[in-house]
Design brief:
The protein is α/β, with parallel strands linked by helices. 31% of the residues lie in helices and 22% in strands. The chain has a six-stranded mixed beta sheet with strand order 2-5-1-6-3-4.
Amino acid sequence: MKKAGILNRHLSGALAELGHGDGVLVCDAGMPIPDGPRVVDLAFRAGVPSFAEVVDGLLAELVVEGATAATEVREANPTAATLLDGYFGEGCLDFVSHERLKELSAAARLVVRTGEARPYANVLLRCGVFF
């Protein structure tokens, strides 16, 4: 049994299958999930687990070379916007319309649904390599 890191067997296994350039959409409970990507649904109750908790856990285990979020997050959910700005340095975080983010999410390899109940708490991570 694992003693640290992501303990959810479905999520841990899905992360182990990712490679360079693969997309991982971390989304709130309201984001429409496209057909195609593997989905690990962590939502338990409204707000549990939070977007911040899940992103923090994923970034502790993944190499991420870039991320994309919706421009609408800045106005509608400043808390999530500040969180994303803190996680990703200058030039590593792109913003597109929410509609475009939904289109891009169709090409993701993995979708991780959180219980987040605040709007636009979504980010598409692009996997990097550790060397």
